[in-house]
Amino acid sequence: MSLTDLKKGKGGPVKKKSFTVDEFISDAENYAKGKPELVKRGEGSDEPSLDLAQAIAFAEQQVADKEKTKASNKPFRHATFTLSEDAIAQLNKLAKDSKLAKSHIIRILIEHLSSQDQQKQLSTLLGSKTL
């Protein structure tokens, strides 16, 4: 692999503002005050320049949106629960015989139980011999 393989291929040429080093250095004071003249968003950007409070609010909104998207992309959540040795052995046997994941088997059993009417659910749950 060469360095040319790492070259960014798409996106087209980016126009850069031309200014001298002296202009850049003198603009550092404006930048420190939050009002740079030379170094701003790209010229092609449609977004307006933001002050500090707006930038913070915008960043917080992006983080919230990202977390919401992240949460909605996960169909399952990790859960921790305790099983007896007998239940673990039975679950392992079911998984081995059916070639299904143990979590998938548990989801199937939960779906089956929840699809029953309430009376049948209660009789199944209360009639169970497991502790």
Topology pattern, helix = H, strand = E: HHHHH
Beginning-to-end CA distance, first to last residue:
60 Å
Tell me the total number of β-strands: 0
Largest sheet, if any? none
Mean pLDDT: 77
What gross morphology would you assign?
Answer: elongated
Radius of gyration: 30 Å
Helix content: 40-55%
In short:
The chain is an all-alpha fold and 131 residues long. Helix content is 53%, strand content 0%. The protein starts with 20 loop residues before the first helix and ends in a 5-residue tail after the last helix.
Task: Please provide a written account of the structure.
With 131 residues, this protein is an all-alpha fold. The protein has 2 domains: 18-42 and 49-73, no CATH class; 85-126. The protein has helices at residues 21-32, 52-72, 85-98, 102-114, 118-126. It is elongated. The model is unreliable at 41-46 (pLDDT under 50).
Write out key terms for the chains shown.
elongated; 2 domains; mainly alpha; about 130 residues
Topology:
Blueprint: H1 21-32, H2 52-72, H3 85-98, H4 102-114, H5 118-126
